[in-house]
Amino acid sequence: MTADIPSPGRIVIVGGGTAGWLSAATFSRTLGMRDVTLVESSEIGIIGVGEGTFPTIRSTLAGLGVGEGEFLRSADATFKQGVLFDGWATGADSYFHPFNMPIGGEDEALLPHWLAMEGQRASWADSVTVQERVIRAGRAPKRVQDPDFSGPMNYAYHFDAARFADYLRTISLAAGVRRIEGMVAHVEQREDGDIAALTLRDGRRVEGDIFIDCSGFRALLIGKTLGSGFVGCGDTLFNDRALAMQVPHDRPDAPIRPYTLATAHEAGWTWDIGLPERRGIGYVYSSRHCSDDEAETVLRRYVRPGGEALTPRQLRFATGYRERQWIGNCIAIGLSAGFFEPLESTGIMLIEAALRMVGDFLLPAGSASDTAARNAAARRFNRLMTARFERIVRFLKLHYCITRRTDTAYWRDNADPASIPADLQDLLAQWRHRPPSRFDFTVDLETFLPPSYHYILYGMGFETRLAGGIGRYPGGQEARAAFARVAGASGAAVSHLPDHRALLDHLRGRQ
Ligand code: FAD
Questions:
Q1: FRET label pair with 85: which of 3, 110, 191, 299, CA 20 to 30 Å apart?
Q2: Which of the listed residues 22, 26, 46 should we mutate to test ligand 1's pocket, taking the one with most ligand atoms within 8 A of CB?
Q3: Model pTM?
């Protein structure tokens, strides 16, 4: 926790889901704010899904000053080392998007030499990191003796979304955040358009200086009150519904996968996430390409056996984001700001990114009360968040548009150029003849760095035929030596890391 810093005034958060409580915890514990109030309505409740995270969550949690064991216990969390994609390229393929950077970091020198080794090479992910072998052996990313939030493998977590929100609430209340239970019925604005106060249904009035809209898909402040338009992305990313189930393990000591399994189906894909006591499974699908009944059949076919008696919960969502996420003294964070289907777990990671920017831009002394500085911060925030949203759309679409599946309209439509953003089409046209270059990316705006693009492109079997051959790329010998080092290190990496469930039992205090 940091020492107290001058306050930007009274902060009022509307909404008590992951976005609301992560905001409250960050303001109170990481940023040392003293006047934070959160209003939530148990009548509405929270969305309660969102079980996969991104490695940034580790520094977010460390910043909150909590211990990893306590977090694992409280949120029913497990380790996630990436996403295994089954059936996305041909229907019968499998590839891994690891969180580990390739050997050599972001250096692109290895890629052309791997491309030139066609016919005599391991997969790209297996050539440049040991992580796929680690996950396929069911190993954890760290050892008992590693410090909190770090280990030899890069990792994030899976957790129970409702328990995570409860945990964040507990630690926020302990840090002095005020919680008000109630339904916001009216939003009062000043003449300049800034929000002055909220009126609850029972008549109570909550005044503030900065309002954080974490009201979920309702977008109560940023959308309904301030009228920020919604930029829909449904013509590119078709999925707009999900059916979710919580399926008990078939035995208490069943192995827990240390990765998310994402399996492609006729009109979407299933997530399969292992928690200590159960699996979270959901089918994300496009209502334009299948009915809810067909979706349920696909989900049940996937879950069987073990799910016959369970009733799935349906979630509907619009894919897209708000034109402006920060207007005047209101900042939208979480689903109110935007949402894309859960592929690659961008929801919570965008909450973390927004909170970091708010911490840097708004909270330093003075800028919240200096209207010109505040509005300049808002413009910068909106530009950066919009760029992030656009690039995430591009990255998610990459998972679909280079498929070679033609078995259903869903996959054919996904590869139809009309659904592919123009900048992605331009990149793909070039990547047919050269590997991606760092000049293809503005790294500060990317949530997914170039190595993630490489893992998806070449995991999907995308073909790059090097124009002019390998001759213009130096470093062939070094590249082959690097691939050999990775192959040689994988046995030791696997044997030095513990079984996933065994480590969780230990860290959760059960052994
Ligand atoms: P919510 O949880 O909906 O919370 C909204 C809050 O606002 C509630 O407390 C509600 O009571 C309150 N509220 C609303 N109106 C009022 C009012 N008038 N008065 C008082 N209170 C009000 N993200 C990931 O990072 N990883 C994933 O794997 C992932 N999977 C997902 C799968 C699906 C199918 C969906 C739909 C989303 C997924 N997400 C995922 C996104 C993730 O769930 C959200 O980003 C995250 O839970 C934050 O939600 P939220 O707090 O913005 O909204």
A1: 110
A2: 46
A3: 0.96
Residues with Cβ within 8 Å of residue 382, at least 6 apart in sequence: 324, 325, 326
**Amino acid occupying residue 10:** R
Q: E strands within 23-103?
A: 36-40, 78-80, 82-86, 94-98
Tell me how many helices (H) and strands (E) the chain has: 15, 21
Distance set, CA 241 to CA 234, 237, 296, 336, 345 (Å)? 11, 12, 11, 17, 16
Q: Which two tokens stand for residue 146?
A: 């590693």
CB burial readout 329-343, b (16+ within 10 A) else e: bbbbbbbbbbbbbbb
d(CA 154, CA 353): 19
One digit per residue, the tens of pLDDT, for the chain of length 511 reads 444 455 678 999 999 999 999 999 999 999 999 899 999 999 999 998 879 999 999 999 999 999 999 999 999 999 999 999 999 999 999 999 999 999 987 677 899 999 999 888 999 999 999 999 999 999 999 999 999 999 999 999 999 999 999 999 999 999 999 999 999 999 999 999 999 999 999 999 999 999 999 999 999 999 999 999 999 999 999 999 999 999 999 899 999 999 999 999 999 999 999 999 999 999 999 999 999 999 999 999 999 877 788 999 999 999 999 999 999 999 999 999 999 999 999 999 999 999 999 999 887 656 667 888 889 999 999 999 999 999 999 999 999 999 999 999 999 999 999 999 999 999 999 999 999 988 999 878 888 999 999 999 999 999 999 988 898 898 999 999 999 999 999 999 999 999 999 999 999 885 4
Closest residue (by CA) to atom 53 of ligand 1? 216
Q: Is this prediction's ipTM beyond 0.90?
A: yes
**260 CA: nearest ligand 1 atom:** 28
Evaluate: CB of 334 within 6 angstroms of ligand 1: yes
Question: Rounded to whole angstroms, how far apart are CA atoms 212 and 459?
Answer: 39
The CB of 216 under 6 Å from ligand 1? The reply is: yes
Instruction: Respond yes or no: is residue 80 known to be catalytic.
Output: yes
